[in-house]
Each structure stands twice: as structure tokens, then as C-alpha cells.
Amino acid sequence: MLRATLKSLLARKLRLLLSGLAVVLGVMFVSGAFVLTDTLGRSFDAVFADAYAEVDVSVEAKPKIDVSTAEGMPLSTPMPASVLDRIKAVPGVADAEGVVAADGARMIGSNGKVVTSFGPPQLGQNWLGESDLVEIREGRAPQADDEIVINTALAEAGKVKVGDRVGVLTLAPKKEFTLVGVFGYSGGRDSIGGANEVYFTTPVAQQLMLGKPDVFSNVSVQAADGTTPEALRDEVARTLGADYQVKTGEQLAADASAGLKEGLSFFNKILLGFAAVALLVGTFLILNTFSIIVAQRTRELALMRAIGASGKQVIGSVVLEALAVGLIASVLGLAAGIGVGALLAYLFGQLAGGLTLAGLGVPASAVIGAFAVGMLITVIAALLPALRASRIPPIAAMQDVATPDRPLTKVTIGGAVVTGIGAVLLFLGLGGHAGDSTLATILGGVLFAFIGVALLTPIISRPVVSLLGAMFSWSVPGKLGRLNSGRNPRRTAITAAALMVGIALVTGVTVILDSAKGSIGKLAEDTIKAELVISGSTTGPRPASFDPAVLEKAAAIPGVQLVSGEYGDMAVVGGERTWVAVSSNVAALQQIFGAKATAGDISRLAPDQMLVSSDTAKARNLAVGSTVPVQLSRGEARTYTVSGIYESSQLTNPVTLPPQAAADFSIPQPIQGFLQLAPGTSVGAVQPQVERLLADSPEVSVADRAAFIEQQTGQLDSLLQMIQILLALAIVIAVLGIINTLALSVLERTRELGLLRAIGLRRAQTMRMITVEAVVISIFGALLGVVVGAGLGAAVVEALKDEGITDLILPWGQMVTFLILAAIIGVVAAVLPAIRAARINVLGAIAHD
Amino acid sequence: MTATVGREQAAARANDVWKVYGSGEAQVAALRGVSAEFERGRFTAIMGPSGSGKSTLMHCLAGLDTVTKGTVMIGDTTVTGLNDAGLTKLRRDKVGFIFQQFNLLPTLTAQENILLPLSIAGRKPDPAWYDTVIDTVGLRDRLGHRPAQLSGGQQQRVACARALVARPEVIFADEPTGNLDSRSGAEVLKFLRNSVREHGQTIVMVTHDPTAAAYADRVVFLADGQIVSELIEPTAETVLDTMKKLDAPVEVGN
């Protein structure tokens, strides 16, 4: 039995591999994700282990605000220089150095633009001399206050060389320095983990990076001989008390690496998401392939039953076949996944400024994941056909049992139930009734909806396919093709369903993003009453910012009526992490952003007053006169009194603090500036003047409102493009499915095709017949996809109404494009099967048994 | 009439078997109360014109089709009412098949095809019997060939060997010579007759060819779903005569 199964498998290897291709791709994504995470994770470990290799113990004041890796680098609380002396006095300390290190030293390259790091921090530090790790490659150490050294990677990216005067943006606006040296790291590395680093003399670093003289971000401690880092850590911690975090170098390295790995896991999830899509589509294809193969082997399977095979053995043989296909697909997928993981890790390393990759890692999870997913999916998909195979009566071996058209009632009822479950899950998830598992509920809902619709497809296919086919019925081959596509509704349905999934996802995402873009644009247009906007694009966690002096100077330009700079930061408000904002001109709240007061006065703010949105007030139980303690990134906590409440809208922040508070933000510089012009003032006259003011703030630019909106929503466009490209993969898999189904159908109908040719159907007509069948199936799939996708998208948009996506925008143009694309896909998919059909030997086909 | 041979215990037995297809207006009775016994170690042919129910009778006897009324027994096993597991066991232990279309698996060699029923049942062939079967069918030099590399007669001999190798209680052959030229057909029939005479195999063969039926020890004639006649030790001439007689009343009726 085993041998019979394997031999029959070998006889059909190409066909099965084609259907296994979807599994290969799915497995590739799964194992690729694991390989990437493992390789990069170990690279980070190595990088940080190196970076902290010379630190025995590090002392740091607790940060005022905890931030996640995605939000940027935590701002450590500066500690007075006197702490350094206390540490030096601890027994077991050989030496201690005060270190200044903070994110936000942005060097301006030779092209006048800030050199960005795309994620890793841009560190400003005090030069502490060369070490085993740090080596000056060119020039010398900084000695005067206007001298800096930078790392080689930064020098190359900014195209600057020793002796140049270069501008650096820090807490202070642009300052010019002489570049006196370029350094690198041991082992020929130009950066550590892609960070851009600028080293100043200690007093300059303290002033520019920490904002105060005589303070340090942390103290690096060397243990005396015979003292272990752990013992020293405990000793120092006891001396300094609870206000300080004392960690060993090893701990620091592990923490830093863990932070980055957290960011990586997001990337991992995206890859796994696409794996899920590929596997879902693949499931349909495998189901279809096995169904067709079982149908074609009816006689063979019946024979097996007649000579004594039990139903279980027949199921076993089909499942075994699926396992073999799954196994081969998993092996191929794993190999491809290792390649993809290595490639992505390499690209990531390049993008992160030359991250030195640890050796390629293939973790056990990648291998186990690959085989588990690949084989499980294949077997699950083959289960239904296997069950059907076991029900073939042995008598079918002796006579052509006309397999009656099984009624579609059961499938349709099942489909309706599954679709219903999907709808309920979507309702619960989108309506916010699912609590913590909202995302899982929504994804489950989408999955159920897809499977449900796929089950309903056979019943839908009858009228729709015959209607679609009517377009081609003017010629005999067209008519035959149409009838062929309608004669096995299940097969047509599953093939179309595979295409449906990809197109539905693309359509759904497009509907959501287009609606979001349209709604945001409309909102901004309707409510932002500013003719000019200063802003920059963000390339990492740290937003672009500019010199606050620009605001005052801009206000002085004739014709400018109102200017407000917007600051923002994470803070702890009343014990909870909350986003707080500052408008340099409180009046802007009403006059530019159209905020409406619901209580108190929102047109002015004293230094100890704050405004909150109505949502915040409700959630925190605040009213005018409530007092709230607020801890900002810098300085001590202080108490503010709520003096006004404004209605929550898309453009308002949860909490607005007075302008004085901005100095204690982690970025004490405005992120955006809004300029309202006096009536009758020409935008074109003011814009160049503002541009000149921004000459020393190269991170930002000034744009009119339309350009600003375009700039803001432009990010959604690139997101959409990225998703579309990746989902195109699902569509490619579906095309393979159509080719496979057609090829199998042609094979199955060899005799019939031969007969048609014998009674005079020409080759070209045969090919046209097959093509019409393919086109009808693929347009049907695309039509389903567009309808289901638009429906899902509309449901999500409806659910997000309260989040500000108010307008449902259906991308009609794109939807029509999908249908046309589907027709082309059909033609392309038909090429090979059609050629095969046309080449059928007439005599042989009729004699074919 | 009822065809019975009471000498020995029957290898297969039908008792008042009715088979009705469809319902209401479209009802067709393929078998109307057939009772017959097929005794051990003999070669019985079932004959009859097209639509007489001969194939249906064989399918019912072999447990491939259910009966509407009556009982079927193979050896001491009551086939009627067996569930799928019981039927599977029956096919493994007691029944062998030879088909008109040969029905060999194209991907397996002749030898693998012959041993397939045993390997499905998870049994080892009895080497002596296997050798006997191979020598009887005369295929020793063809064992490594695929069905496509064999002639029709050779393929059918492989199919016969496949049925014989498990030593079933009874072999049902459905028009085994229908797809063969007369020479290959004669070879296959001789071979079937020899396996009955020399090895005591029981064979029930459905055919409409009088020459083929003449190889049997006994012929049972069916018409309109009933057993109408029977011949012991038939010749082609006697079979043909009986067939003519069977057709005659129908012609008169017209």
C-alpha cells in the first residue's frame, strides 16, 4: 500500500509540486522570519557585549519617564558631578569616569542636510580618550570647545573630512565646530549598531546634550583587581541609595539588546502575517489539487477498495501523499527561508549603518516552525479530499459510476454559518467588545469570513459565472469554455476563492487607507486655519525639530497674524503615561485648530495651569480646578491646576501644558510650526522669508497647507504600496492555482477534447475555449475579492468612525483595474494548459481510457 | 427457477435476492427473487442478454452492491447487512476480482500489482503458492514490467494472478475476455479453468460470450432479472442454443 502510494505520487510529481509551491512560499516566510530574528538578535548581542565590554559597573539616575524602544532612547536624569566623587570613594573601585551620552546630536552633512540614522540613536557624548574599543583613525582628540570627533560611518555618510567646519544640532540650535578627528572601533568597524556619534569636550557635551554644566548621564566604574563586577555593583548601590540604577556591563548589554529585539519582533510579526496569507491561499490550492486528483483516480481507488483496502487505508494513502508533498515543500521553503532571512539580515545591517552580522543562525524554531506549518497545512487541506476518496464505492472499479452532482445545500449552509461566525467576530472585534483580544478577534473574523465566502462560492458561482460567460458566448469555443467553467461549481469556486483572498485583502487595505487619507485630509483642510506649516519628515523614533527662535522671528514677518510652535512628549500625568503637548501660543488652540471649550477658559494658560481634552477629563475624572501632578522628562514633578477643558477631536492633544513646560521636554524644541496669515496676505510672499529663517534648521521645511496635508498623508501612500506589493504575492500564488486547475481539467477531459477536435474544432478554437474558461474563473475570483474586500474595508472604516475616519472612500478605479488585471491573469494562466489541450492527439485521445 | 447444487457446501449463495433501482414511476427491478448456489471448486458462468441482470447479480454476490431484499452468503459469512469494515474484511479474506478493463495500477510493476492485495492486507505471500501462480500464468520473465509494457492478454493474466495469489474463497470475473482478442481470451480462460481443476479455486464469471461460457463447468442463464435456465458441462453449441431459446419467447412477445 505504502509503495503503491509513493509510486503514484512520483507519477504526478510536477502537478503536486505546483500546488505545493504556495506552501513553499508560506514556509519561506515563516522560517525566514525566524532566521532573520535570530541572526540580528545575536548580532545585537555581540554589538552590545562589545560596547559594554570595558564597563564593569555603570551608575545611572533613574529616568523620569520610561519609554519603549519604538519611542526612542530614554532620557537619563542628569546626575551632579559630586556623585562621581562619592563613587570613587567606594572600596573596590579602581577608577570611575563621568559619561555624557544622549540622543539628539544631529550633524549637518556637506550637502546642508542632517545626516539621519534611520532608527539607531544619534549620540552626543563627551570624549574620554581612546581605549581597546575606540581608536582614532585620523586626526586627534577634541581639545578646544569648538572641536569635535565623529565616528567613521557618520563622516562617510555626511561626506565630511578632518579640518571641515561642520554644524551640529543639539538641545541648542545649530552650532559650528571644527572636525578634528574621525574614530572607529576595534575590528575595523565604523559604527556600533549603526549609531551616529559626535564627541565633544566634556563641558560642551554637558551643556549641549544635558542642558546643564557639571552633570553626567552616567558614571562608568572600573573594578579594582580582585573585585567582581557583581560585588562592586552591590557595594555602589548600597552607597548611593535607591535613586540610582547600578548595573554591570553585562546587564547593560543584555538590556540594550533586549530593547532592540523587541523592535525586531514587530518585523517578525509582519513576515508571519504574510506567511499566513500565503498559507491560506495555499490551503485552497492544495484542497483543489487533491480533489481533482482524487476524482481522476476514482477507478484506481475503487480498485484498491475492491481488492481489500479499507476506507481508512484509502484516507491514509491520500494523507500520506499530502505529507510527502508537505515535507518536500517544507524542505524547499526552509531553504528559501534561510536565504531570505540572510538577505533581509544583510539589507538590515546595511541600512543600520553597517551592523556587523553574527554568523547566519538557523534556530530550531525555524526548522520546527517550517515543518510543522508546511506539513500541517498540507495535510489539513488534503483531509477533505481524502475523506471523499474513502467514500468511493468499490463498484466504481467495474463501471463508470456517474458521480451525481452532489447537492450544494450542505456546503451552502456550512458557508452561511461560517460567514455568520466571521461577521459576529468582526462585529465584536471592530465594535471594541472583545477587550484585550481585539486584534485576534478581528483577524479570526476575517479568516472565518474568507472561508465562509469560499464555501458559499459554489452556489454564487452558478448565476455569476453564467452571466460572466455570457460575454463570451458569441462564438462556439467561447460558449464551450463558459459551460466548462460552470460544470464543476466546487472546483471553479475553490480556484476563484484562492484569487479572492489576495484581491480582497488588497482591496480592503486600499479602502481603509484611502478612507483614512481622505478623512484626515478633509479634516485638516476643514479645521486647520494655517496657511503655512513648518514640519519635517521623521526617519526614526526621534521627530525632526527646529530652533524655537524661528517662531518669534516668523511672527515679526509682516502679514503673519499668528504663529504657534507645537511641542510634544511623553509624561507621567497623575501617575499615568500620557502624551502632553505645548503650543507656544495658546491662542492657536482655538484660532488655528478650532478647539471648542466645554468648561473654563482655553484661551490663556498661566505657568501652573493646564488644559485637558474632554475625553481625558472624563477618563481621569477631572474638572476645572482639579490639581494634577505632572512629571516631565527633565526636572522635578510639579502640580498643575486644570483651567479649561476642550472638546476632543482629531487635532487636539489629551493634555496641553503652558509654554514654559516645553523646556523640560526630552526634545525642548518645536516639532511643527503653524503660521496664520492676515487676510489678503500672499502666501508666496511670506514663504521664502520663512524659508530663510529655517536656514539653520535643515531638518524641517515650510510648506503651504495643501503640501503639508500631502506630506502628512503621503506616509499612508507608501504604506499602501508596501502592503500591495507583498499581497501581490498572494495573487501570484492564486494564478499558479488557476494554471494548475486548468492543467488538471485538460488532462481529465483528454477524451472529450479529442472528440471535439475529431468533429472539427480547430486548434485555435480549442485554445480559445480553454482561455475563456480561465478568464471567466479569474474574473469571478476578482469580482468576489473586490466585493468581499470592499465590504471588509467598509466595516473597518465604519468601526473607526470614532477614531476620525469619517469618510468611506471606495477606490473604484483600482477595483476596475483589478477586474481587468484578472482578465489578463486568466489569459496568462491559460497559455500552457491551452497549448497542451491543442496538442492532444485526436486518435489517441478518443482511444484514451 | 432456482439453481441449486446440493452436493457440497456452496462457496457463494444468493437467497431470493431482489435489486430494485429508483423509486415510484422510475422503478426498475434488476433482480427479481434470484436464488442460486455456486459450489466450491467449480467454474460457474453467468450468462444472459444485455440488461438481464447478470452483472448486478455478480455485484450483489460480491458485496459490491446492496440488495433490496433477500440474503447473500459467501462461505459461511452473511454478506447482506455487513458494514464497511465487515465488507473490507470480506474482500480481503474471501473475494477476488478480475475485471474487464484489467484495472492494473499503471505505476506499479507486474509483480507489485500481483502482490498488492496482500500488501494492502499487510500479509506476506506464501512463497510456494506465489511461485505456482506465477508459473501457471507464465509471467516469470515479465514481472518487472509495467502494465503499459505488457500486451492485453498479459495484463489480464497479471490481473488473474493478483486475484489468485490471496487464495480467496471465490473469484468473481466480470467479462474477463471482453477486451481481449480471441487468442489471448482463450489463454486466459484456459488458465482460469486450470486454476479451478488443479487448485480447487472457485470462480464465478459473468460473460455474454458463449465460447467463454463453454470453458465453465456450469452455466446459469439470467433473463429479466430471473434465473431461467442452467447447463452442466456446457459446450459453445449448447450455450448458444440455450441463448437462442431465451431470446425466442421475447421475439414472440414482440
TrEMBL record, chain A:
One of its GO terms (molecular function) is transmembrane transporter activity. It comes from the Bacteria. The chain crosses the membrane at residues 270-294, 315-348, 360-387, 408-430, 442-472, 493-513, 725-747, 768-797, 809-832. The keyword Transmembrane applies. GO terms for cellular component: plasma membrane. Residues 274-394, 725-841 form the ABC3 transporter permease C-terminal domain. Its main location: membrane. It is found in: Cell membrane. Keywords: Cell membrane, Membrane, Transmembrane, Transmembrane helix. Pfam families: FtsX, MacB_PCD. Residues 18-238, 492-692 form the MacB-like periplasmic core domain. It is a multi-pass membrane protein. InterPro entries: ABC3_permease_C, MacB_PCD, Macrolide_Exporter_MacB. Belongs to the ABC-4 integral membrane protein family. This is ABC transport system permease protein.
TrEMBL record, chain B:
The keyword Nucleotide-binding applies. Signal peptide: none annotated. Residues 12-249 form the ABC transporter domain. GO terms for cellular component: membrane protein complex; plasma membrane. Pfam families: ABC_tran. The keyword Hydrolase does not apply. GO terms for molecular function: ATP binding; ATP hydrolysis activity; transmembrane transporter activity. PANTHER family: ABC TRANSPORTER RELATED (PTHR24220:SF685), IMPORT ATP-BINDING PROTEIN (PTHR24220). This is ABC transport system ATP-binding protein.
